[in-house]
User: What shape does this take?
Amino acid sequence: MTNYRQLYEYTVRRAFNCGRYKDPFCLADGDTYDTSSRSKEFHNIKFGISASIKKVLNENADIYEDKHFIYRLRQLDNEIWIAENMEGINQIINETHTIFLENLDLKLGL
Assistant: This one.
């Protein structure tokens, strides 16, 4: 079983190369996932993933502009905002995390 709480935290921490709560928006922590997943809007999760994607795109789009995963990250950034349930959000978190791991040299900050 996938631990989406942990995937969320690691995705944000990788994007910002930071430890817990050390990203500019203090969203890099599994507690943010827990709290936001209980709300009906899921805003903090959506914002954390979107900010992570935008940061990675901003820093890497020119280098990898012809790569499919850059296009897919842009799609995921749009999809996260229209996702209406945790199942859809978790799929986006999982795919974003996988793209970060497989295509980019992003370190998990401490």
Observations:
- Residues 4-103 form one domain.
- The chain has a mean pLDDT of 90.
- Residues 43-60 form the longest helix (18 residues).
